[in-house]
Amino acid sequence: MQGILLVDKPAGWTSFDAVNYVRKIVASAEDKPPKRVKVGHSGTLDPFATGLLVLLIGKEYTKRAGELSKLDKTYEVTMCLGRTSTTGDPEGEISPVSDDVPKKDELESTLKKFLGTIEQVPPAYSAVKVGGQRAYRLARAGKEVQIDPRQVTINGLEMTNYDYPEVRFIAEVSSGTYIRTLVGDMGRVLGTGAYTMALRRTLVGRFDAKDAIGPKDITTSNILGRLQGL
Questions:
Q1: pLDDT over 60 (residue 159)
Q2: Are 50 and 8 in contact (CB under 8 A)?
Q3: Domain that holds residue 187
């Protein structure tokens, strides 16, 4: 069994949870121990986030994970104004910052400031490696995490709804972009603080979440019927 399987990851699952879940099903279908079945993904999603996870099944596909991880991505973002989070998302410690209510045109102007190639520092609670260790492990251990800034490209930002304190927008970004960082930086520019309340990935390159399958529907027959080639 080889190919690409599009999975709609639910909130609360890690990307590894999804990989492990599918690996067990494939292993059972092929009558192999799970450790002998190759399943990977082309880009992780935070546990609180939902949406498109591109899973790679079989050696011929998992070896191309690095190539596929470079694809552009699109997200539906819900930003909460007036507060910050230690992790940049709902799972961290939330702190109030400001009661100021930005006007809609001020928000639209701020979004425009982040278009194009920008520099951002990945969050401490991320899978970025620092000195050979994952940043989130160092952060959870209470250690100071120093991560170098990196260049990313923001191809599009479109506000779809504003009902203070929530701002919803669509972000079209390059690989390597951290939405939590983008939202936090927007909050600093606005002077209100902000964190990512909800996040859904809808596109990875040409792959669309509309074609993805939810965990409850992942069966051997459904995997076989939905596998795609490159």
A1: yes
A2: yes
A3: 73-204
Q: Within this chain, do residues 151 and 166 fall inside the same structural domain, yes or no?
A: yes
Q: Active-site residue among 8, 17, 31, 46?
A: 46
Residue written as token pair 């690409």? 4
Does 46 qualify as catalytic in the annotation? yes
Q: How many domains does the chain have?
A: 2
* SS3 state of residue 75: strand
CATH number of the domain where residue 117 is located: 3.30.2350.10
pLDDT digit string (tens) for 180-205?
A: 999 999 999 999 999 999 999 999 99
HSE (side-chain half, CA atoms, 13 Å) at 24: 7
Task: Give the percent of the chain with pLDDT over 90.
Answer: 76
Question: Coil, helix or strand for 63?
Answer: coil
